[in-house]
Amino acid sequence: MERITAILSRQAAIDALLRYTDGLDRADAAQLESAFTENAIIDLTAFSALGMNYEPIQGRDSIIAACMSAVGDALETTHSLTNILVKLNDQNDSAIITCYSESQHIKKGQAFASDSQDKSLIVKCRYNASVSQQGPEWRIERLEVIRDPERIKSPGSSTLQVASAGSFTNFAMAHSAQQSETILGLSPFAIDFLMGGVSAAISKTAAAPIERIKLLIQNQDEMIKAGRLDRKYSGIGECFRRTIADEGILSLWRGNTANVIRYFPTQALNFAFRDKFKRMFGYQKDRDGYALWMVGNLASGGLAGATGQLFVYSLDYTRTRLANDAKKGGQRQFNGFIDVYRKTLASDGIVGLYRGFFPSVFGAVVYRGLYFGMYDSFKPLVLVGALENNFLASFCLGYLVTTAAGIAAYPLDTIRRRMMMTSGEAVKYKSSFHAAKQIVAGNGVRALFNGAGANILRGVAGAGALSIYEQLQLILLGKTFKGE
């Protein structure tokens, strides 16, 4: 049985490299995404001898962007892997791979031309890869591409240029027109950014009704204290009925505009900060050990999240205030998200827009720590035997861990949102600790989990809508774009 497991693991490890080369050859971003871990690194420094200054590329998104920019619509590649050697660890869940890659690079549409041999570049390299099992699939953690100077040649007389494309090798014919990789007339970055926004808008809009119900139940005690709610909601169903009866069905989407708008600056800031912090804490589980990897993951995620939140937190605050602005006597406290800014700045200044900021950042770190910690702890206990490579079992474990981590970190979300609700009010919490103490003293520990059930349903609603939309993207555009 152990031998069979080792054989299956070996083939699964090799498959990660094959998905990478297949993604390059088909210019398939989704296939490339499936090949790498989130913090993966490609090291091309050996190619600096060609006259370019190549830096290691860190982060799956950066790797995909570089690969798509290098290949795109202007170039066709064909990769083949040979002499593949795999060394598995004792647990058969990570491996080191070494192999040779031979690839042909030629201008798109010229592969079958009579003079195609004169217009192609043949490259032979050695790959050194670290791969590990991530749920049902194996993925590349680090890929080092080692150049063989004797095996890079253009068979014919026509020269090819090796140029930089966002720290990745971008081949282009010297006599060809300027490379243009466009979809609907937009650059790859623009289409990824915009379509990711559409994905985010669809998932957030689909989940908006249950999201508003979650926020109303979560913050009902603050609304009662402020005199904006007559009595508590008895449950999710009763909250739906009362909200629709008092405010109309369209009110279920109140605050969704600010939530959708928040996506775009968040993504832009992710591009700006995420890779920088990942490079600062670029620990690898196999190389540096689990403890350092976990610390690095939490530190990079926390710093990137905190830096991004400095810019977009006020939009989350606005969404929260609008969603909890229940009609009272036909009147609302705010007329729209601009009005939220205007009234909050007038009453509390800039501090009012950032109430709950610290528990927000800490909550994100707690969530990430619990998620990775629980998954890595339960995986070797649950995904064994017949369940070891079972997709459904891996999915269920991932969903349960995600839900458990979300519930465990939920009190911090309640604290931050209830702190938000005090901006503009006479009585405010002095700190997150003071807020937690007052909430528990006044309403019991259970109050910290108000709305947690609706929060679980929200994730299902958003994921369902997004999965349908991803299928439409595959049909219309040939790839998927995911918004966060």
UniProtKB/TrEMBL annotation:
Keywords recorded for this protein, A-Z: Antiport, Membrane, Mitochondrion, Mitochondrion inner membrane, Repeat, Transmembrane, Transmembrane helix, Transport
Organism domain of life: Eukaryota
Residue ranges annotated for the SnoaL-like domain, each copy included: 7-143
GO annotation terms (biological process): mitochondrial ADP transmembrane transport; mitochondrial ATP transmembrane transport
Keyword Cell inner membrane in record: no
Chain coiled-coil ranges: none
Annotated compartments: Membrane; Mitochondrion inner membrane
Broad class of the protein's primary localization: membrane
Keyword Transmembrane appears in the UniProt entry: yes
This protein's name: ADP/ATP translocase
Biological classification of the source: Eukaryota, Fungi, Dikarya, Ascomycota, Pezizomycotina
